[in-house]
Amino acid sequence: MSDGQAPLIVWFRDELRLLDLPALAAAASSDRPLVCCYIHDIESAGLRAPGGASRWWLHHSLVALREQLQELGGDLIVQQGKSVDVLLKIAAQTDAAGIVCTRAYEPAQIALEVELARCAAEQGLECRRFPGQLLFEPEAVVTGQGTPFRVFTPFWKACRRLVEPAFPVPAPTALKFYPGDCNTQSLSSLQLLPHAPDWAQGWERLWQPGTAGAQQRLGEFLRETVENYAAGRDFPGLGATSRLSAHLHFGEISPRSVWHAAQQQARERPELVPEIDKFLAELGWREFNRHLLFHYPQIISQPFSPRFAGFPWQSDPQALLAWQRGQTGYPIVDAGMRELWQTGVMHNRVRMIVASFLSKHLLIDWRDGEAWFWDTLVDADLANNVGGWQWVAGSGADASPYFRVFNPTLQSAKFDKAGDYVRRWVPELAELPAKYLHEPAEAPPEVLEAAGVELGTNYPKPLVEHRFARQRALDAYAALS
Ligand code: FAD
Predict the structure, then answer these.
(1) What pLDDT was estimated at residue 480?
(2) How does pLDDT run across 302-360, given as a tens digit for each residue?
(3) 366 is known as an active-site residue
(4) Catalytic member of 56, 57, 372, 389
């Protein structure tokens, strides 16, 4: 093949989109034919295999991306194996001139990029990385001393002082594809979908993985929901948030697209500026967590604050199981854990409550909770999950102070006052009056009986008493210093 016709390989990882993908735009502008590929890699060192719920999403997202490429006359080459081996094999097979990809920030993904660059250079292949996952690159956001920020507020202020992120790169309307065969696998051969049992039945009515679903959700959010974002985002019964997290995790929509769509809405409706600023700040937390992971890769498994290295976590498999199943006897905790199991997401306020309950009331290691979330969340995201858990447990950067032990009953009464959220996910308590819904153990026997609740029979008694658990947590944390 003449050199000008040697193809470029576009390696898709956590950016399953065509719109605003600088790596793809650069490859397309080279005028070389493209080999667009996705490698299901659960073998390379350090990579975490996606959890069950993520696998469901990934399958559908790959279907959507493949369809988009097929509409342009090409295909998504899907293979399974070690990323670097597979890429070099495709390069040899197609006589490729080079490989492009989007820059990643997770340590194992960074290691892959380094290994690929080294191996590709040995084979005379050009290898280029492009931004695309973030609004601001980690090197651009540093303190006056040139060090990474460890506290969110100054981090985000520094981001907002930077030049605005560039406008999204349009999706290509035509692409030139490599015409030869690349031995693509069927998506079903990756076995991403659950079967026997298919616990994700009905999820296709809840979620639409892929760029079209992401765009639709963003549009609806900005048109209909954002006006109550700042005040409503903490109330799990209100549905006041964007529900974009899985779309963002899989890169079906870029943070720049979200940013500019939101800013456009703020220009058209200036009264929405405070809401939109708050929404952008949450995107800022996503940035912050990725920057932290980039600078401090050990936080995947180690506490950010070394003080917590010797924390006396307790092993209690039965309590962990009760938490996972939503059987703790604390209605808001149980509602959250059941929402997670049934839908693949949990509201952010409730994530904080259940994480606090596990790590502080039960003194169970945050890594056990993180692992459960990893398996059950459709938006499971290494940086955000680790960041969220360490923040709640008190061991993270800019963490919630250790003495802040959420009282699940008060949190429930405050953020789910009428009890809509608890009633929806814990139907056995639905007939209890709001006064007792948040703490059924305090309800008089006749109230429980009238509501059909038999504590210890059809709804558990509290797994641990709040005041006792709070004091135990405070004592354990105090012993650290
Ligand atoms: P919105 O409120 O609409 O926010 C818009 C976007 O901003 C989100 O889609 C998300 O990308 C980002 N965002 C919002 N809140 C946060 C936050 N606190 N931290 C980081 N980014 C945020 N988020 C994940 O995407 N994946 C995870 O695995 C994950 N695990 C978490 C674990 C714990 C213990 C906690 C406390 C939080 C976790 N979060 C995680 C953050 C947050 O709960 C979700 O991003 C949010 O609930 C998603 O809902 P949304 O898209 O409607 O958010």
Answers:
(1) 84
(2) 999 998 998 999 999 999 999 999 999 999 999 999 999 999 999 999 999 999 999 99
(3) yes
(4) 389
Active-site residue flag, 389:
yes
Q: Calculate how far, in angstroms, residue 384's C-alpha sits from the geometric centre of ligand 1.
A: 7
More confident call, 367 vs 5? 367
- Asked whether the predicted pLDDT for residue 398 surpasses 80, the reply is no
Ligand 1 midpoint to CA 351 (Å): 9
**Atom nearest to 374 CA in ligand 1:** 28
Does residue 283 have its Cβ closer than 6 Å to ligand 1? yes
285 given a catalytic annotation: yes
367 Cβ inside 6 Å of ligand 1? no
Tell the residue nearest (CA) to atom 15 of ligand 1: 282
Rounded mean pLDDT, 29-39: 97
Catalytic-residue membership of 407 = no
Please give the model's pTM, rounded to 2 decimal places: 0.98
348 is catalytic: yes
Nearest Cα residue to 441 out of 426, 427, 429? 429
Cα 423 to middle of ligand 1, angstroms: 23
